[in-house]
Design brief:
Elements lengths: L1 H21 L10 E3 L7 H18 L2 E6 L8 H12 L9 E7 L8 E7 L8 H17 L3 H35 L2 H24 L11 H15 L34 E9 L1
Parallel strand pairs: 1-2, 2-3
Antiparallel strand pairs: 3-4, 4-5
């Protein structure tokens, strides 16, 4: 019996090692879009999607990563996406708010595959039913036509507003809670501040009036401006400079490519997500 358990554990470890070996290593350039299969073929679109997801991450701390691979090593697509998310550490340790989209294109060696993996912190925002519909209704139709870029973009365009709306609702709820806790004390503070400003304005206006009805003296700054104008009128005109003698501005440096450091930090993934083959 003990020998059977040992053999079973060894087989399980070997199987786990095979699964671990099939997941690509975490890239040095930690960007939202990792096109290892080279199926997007649109640099401007990749840049736009990277900027879109990077902006979402900075605002909401949610990390969405798209990874394309040529082979999933025989793993179920959702299992592949989950393993990749755990090994790369997508999503922070505190919030576990990572989301992985893994895509394998269809080729002569087999069907195409889509796997979603949802971190614990996003399972309520992106439920399994929503994930499955994204795959079958928004991605697969484009993928079957060979347009992987359009399918990936269609999914991201649906996911980002959902995550952003959830974040805005949470922020609004937190703001309402603070207002209720604050009570009406802040209102009296604002009214007192307005009254103080009005009183200060009236006092300064009273002091600015001349005593005995005498006309107010012109500010010194106005006389200085008038004298400066007179001097400028009497000054001889300067000769026009030859435009050829003007120094030429140096050419502006070439724009740097944006770098994204998602800071993959060990987010945890549960069983959320979906798998689809096409």
């Amino acid at each position: 019996m003990k020998l059977f358990k040992i053999v079973f554990i060894a087989i399980a470890l070997m199987a786990g090692g095979v699964g671990m070996a099939q997941v690509p290593e975490k890239p040095a350039q930690q960007a939202p879009i990792v096109d290892l299969a080279g199926i997007i073929n649109n640099d401007s679109l990749v840049a736009a999607l990277n900027a879109q997801l990077d902006s979402l991450s900075k605002k909401t701390q949610n990390q969405i990563v798209v990874v394309t691979v040529k082979d999933m090593g025989g793993l179920d697509p959702k299992e592949f996406a989950t393993t990749l998310g755990q090994q790369w550490g997508i999503g922070g340790k505190a919030l576990n708010n990572g989301f992985v989209i893994a895509v394998k294109p269809k080729d002569e060696n087999g069907s195409g595959k889509i796997g979603f993996a949802t971190g614990y912190g996003l399972e309520g925002v992106l439920p399994d039913v929503f994930c499955k519909r994204l795959q079958t209704e928004y991605m697969v139709p484009h993928f079957k036509e060979g347009d992987y870029a359009a399918g990936i973009k269609a999914a991201i365009d649906e996911i980002v507003p959902v995550v952003l709306n959830e974040y805005n609702e949470a922020q609004a709820l937190a703001g309402d809670t603070k207002k209720k806790e604050g009570g009406t004390g802040n209102g009296w503070f604002i009214i007192a501040g307005i009254i103080g400003v009005i009183a200060l304005f009236a006092l300064l206006r009273k002091r600015s009036k001349p005593a005995g009805g005498a006309p107010a003296q012109e500010p010194q700054a106005s006389k200085l401006k008038e004298e400066t104008r007179k001097e400028e009128k009497n000054e001889p005109e300067e000769p026009e400079e030859d435009p050829d003698d003007e120094p030429q501005d140096p050419e502006p440096p070439a724009p740097k490519k944006p770098t994204y450091k998602y800071g993959y930090g060990g987010g945890d993934f549960g069983g959320g997500g979906a798998s689809t083959e096409f």
